[in-house]
Task: inverse folding
């Protein structure tokens, strides 16, 4: 229900444009979600049993025919996934104040017609089916893909206050591309990919945009597939990939540094660690973290239909290879 999407949705279903012209906001909202539902149906078709779907969505405020209201996108999507048989899991809120030019809407300081400013977005999380993915007991890749104990406490909080919105960096793109691209910080998909997948998994983004999810997947050692109706966005992605080695090294280095700082602080507080990391020269809090292994990118090769990435463990042991599926 954000006006910048009106033309796109109307091209998918002309009845949406007619409803907006007639001031029928509720009808237009329902018809827009019918178009989005086609994508959710495809996700249900391709996602592995026990796989996780993460939907980043904000609600929208809009005036249609002199009626101002909030259109609850998150509620509609949650209901649809539930009806498809997905299991809704606890969602996450992250604040996106970059979008807010002012801290109030409506009548400002005069009651009662002032409204709260929407400064957060939802990360809706759904599991495909009632059961978790079927991993064999002791599967090495799960333990290598582990995150640090302190990361778990931060990432699995239901409110993320340390990630804020990002302004678009599309200086060389035309106005249409800037209008069509949604700001989406790399930290959001990077966290989710590490939280809900393992090395070698394939991450699907059906609303690919400039490819931020694929960049996050490459840094995290996962395959990725993206779908985008605006072909020109691939040029922006290609430019980002040219610098991904440095970005991957920086991302992993920050995680290691933060853990070393956590260890130092914990020792200063007189607390001991029971376990030593097998691949690094520092202790860890739990047994599940012992085999944790982070990777950096050695080389990226581009073909006509895909990128192939060569990785090395952060401690520069033998390399592993993961590509981007066609």
Result:
């Amino acid at each position: 229900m954000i006006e910048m999407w009106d033309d796109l949705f109307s091209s998918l279903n002309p009845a949406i444009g007619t409803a907006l012209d007639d001031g029928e906001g509720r009808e237009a909202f329902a018809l827009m979600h019918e178009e989005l539902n086609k994508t959710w149906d495809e996700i249900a078709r391709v996602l592995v049993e026990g796989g996780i779907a993460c939907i980043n969505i904000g609600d929208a405020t809009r005036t249609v025919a002199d009626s101002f209201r909030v259109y609850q996108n998150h509620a509609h999507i949650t209901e649809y996934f539930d009806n498809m048989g997905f299991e809704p899991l606890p969602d996450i809120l992250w604040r996106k104040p970059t979008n807010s030019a002012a801290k109030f809407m409506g009548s400002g300081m005069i009651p009662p017609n002032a409204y709260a400013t929407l400064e957060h977005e939802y990360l809706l999380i759904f599991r495909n089916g009632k059961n978790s993915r079927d991993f064999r007991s002791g599967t090495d890749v799960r333990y290598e893909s582990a995150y640090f104990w302190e990361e778990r406490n931060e990432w699995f909080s239901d409110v993320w206050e340390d990630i804020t919105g990002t302004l678009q960096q599309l200086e060389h793109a035309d106005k249409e591309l800037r209008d069509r691209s949604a700001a989406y910080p790399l930290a959001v998909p990077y966290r989710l990919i590490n939280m809900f997948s393992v090395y070698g998994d394939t991450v699907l983004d059906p609303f690919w945009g400039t490819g931020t999810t694929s960049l996050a997947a490459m840094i995290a050692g996962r395959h990725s597939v993206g779908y985008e109706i605006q072909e020109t966005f691939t040029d922006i992605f290609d430019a980002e990939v040219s610098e991904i080695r440095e970005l991957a090294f920086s991302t992993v280095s920050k995680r290691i540094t933060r853990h070393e700082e956590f260890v130092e602080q914990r020792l200063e507080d007189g607390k001991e660690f029971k376990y030593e990391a097998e691949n690094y020269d520092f202790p860890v809090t739990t047994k599940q973290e012992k085999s944790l292994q982070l990777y950096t990118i050695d080389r990226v090769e581009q073909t006509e239909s895909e990128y192939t990435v060569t990785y090395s463990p952060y401690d520069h042991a033998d390399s592993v290879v993961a590509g981007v599926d066609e």
Q: What stands out?
A: The two ends are 33 Å apart (CA to CA).
